[in-house]
Amino acid sequence: MKKLVSVLSVFALVSIVLLAGACGADKSKTLIIGASPVPHMLILDFIKGDYEQKGFELEVKEFTDYVTPNTAVLDGSIHANFFQHIPYLEARREWDVLTSVLGVHIEPLGLYSVKHKTLEAIPDGATIAVPNDSTNGGRAYLLLQAKELIKLRAGAGLEASDLDVVENPHNYKFRSLEAAQLPRVLDDVDGACINGNYALEAGFNPMKDALIIEGSDSPYVNIVVVKRGFENDPRITALKETLFTPKVREFILNQWSDGSVVPVF
Known about the structure:
Layout: H1 2-24, E1 30-35, H2 37-53, E2 57-62, H3 68-75, E3 80-85, H4 86-89, E4 98-106, E5 110-112, E6 127-131, H5 134-146, E7 151-152, E8 165-167, E9 173-177, E10 191-194, H6 196-201, H7 206-209, E11 212-213, E12 221-227, H8 234-243, H9 246-255, E13 262-263
């Protein structure tokens, strides 16, 4: 009986120590942030050491689509995300409780083709694939209009679609697909308007391989997003202080010296 009591006492003591250790883990020092692989995760991985020097820990979770990172912030499984621009964030009402806390860089969207080496080689009646979400789709149509390939109705705005095309001199046919899928369908279409991060992941050099590309004055700055009320959390303050440095700016400029990723600070 004494041995049983002794064993139970030891078990209880071990349980208390383990529980105390678990309770002592300070989760308020860890920022969990979701990000697209390129260039977002590369930038975050670069700053991890400096972030930790401020007394915090950065846990980065990879996302490869444009919906679940916002859902994850909404349900609390992550604190922040880094993959989108403001027009995309403002496109859905259920994301109204999310807000931008800092802008980091621009990834110019471009038109790519594996069938045609120049824009002039794309034939009349060609099929052009575009992102199927309203903001990036609109961005694609605005790019095509900026290069005088189509004309949109007045007031079409940032969410322009094929229904807003009023002049199409080359009789292009437009095919809407999920943004992440666009590099994979290049063999099946004449061209595709691809976001910079997905072009980079597919091995393209945007400034060399894109037939046409947005200029550096693009309004589509990639931002870090959190749920409203979390903007002034010390972990976010530390992230701003770690990101907005000459060291990080130099890293971005050197890593993407071709201008495919452009810092805004």
